[in-house]
Amino acid sequence: xxxxxxxxxxxxxxxxxxxxxxxxxxxxxxxxxxxxxxxxxxxxxxxxxxxxxxxxxxxxxxxxxxxxxxxxxxxxxxxxxxxxxxxxxxxxxxxxxxxxxxxxxxxxxxxxxxxxxxxxxxxxxxxxxxxxxxxxxxxxxxxxxxxxxxxxxxxxxxxxxxxxxxxxxxxxxxxxxxxxxxxxxxxxxxxxxxxxxxxxxxxxxxxxxxxxxxxxxxxxxxxxxxxxxxxxxxxxxxxxxxxxxxxxxxxxxxxxxxxxxxxxxxxxxxxxxxxxxxxxxxxxxxxxxxxxxxxxxxxxxxxxxxxxxxxxxxx
Length: 315
Description:
Elements: H1 2-16, H2 23-29, H3 32-48, H4 55-79, H5 81-84, H6 102-123, H7 126-147, H8 154-158, H9 160-163, H10 165-174, H11 179-202, H12 204-209, H13 215-218, H14 221-239, H15 250-272, H16 276-306
């Protein structure tokens, strides 16, 4: 299977030298599913922030954050094109599939990265623009180039890149970084390892084939399961931090508590189920639930702030 991946990769690489993609290929370069989560968490940061922002400016801020996130995805695909050709999960991406060349992805990502930061600074404020620039640089240079191929801690440290968007949204409104926005950052930062390691558990052969030192490849699946459980035990209390800060109210507290218990139960099932199809099924369930979990948490915060129904637990 590894030889097949190499052969397909070589053939698609040759074809990519003479092929330009269409609009859908360039959109795929931007990792739209990741981009949608970035936009949503940035929106929550924007709506939870004190003060207000003109709806038109807020709309353009979100669009520019989305473009910056998409540029990061394109630059990540440019740099990781060689390993994407070896992994079943990524072999159909535009570059390994031969629809976009590596050079085209680099130019596309570079222009959109620089343009999004510059426009955000001019149209909104330079604190938000600086945070967006830092996010793009962190994802490309720290995670993609520096950590991903060198250490099993790649997701732990590199996960910060995906946790910055609510801080950017907050800064778009206030022009500052506050403790409240850092709490939103922490929720995503601590959520990322158990979320991604659940995926890595049942995709470990892919990472092994590409020589990417994800935790299951380096430390083994049992240690990965232990780390997932440990991070999950940290995550649930962290998700409750908005309560004493009055960033989240009674509804958020109830949702976070109930869903956190479900998250812990699924993490425990991953820890216990270590053999065959049952192990893979447990990891897949946690991975799928983790996406729903983060969405519902931030959606609840959004509802409380948009509709003004934030009732502090501590008054």
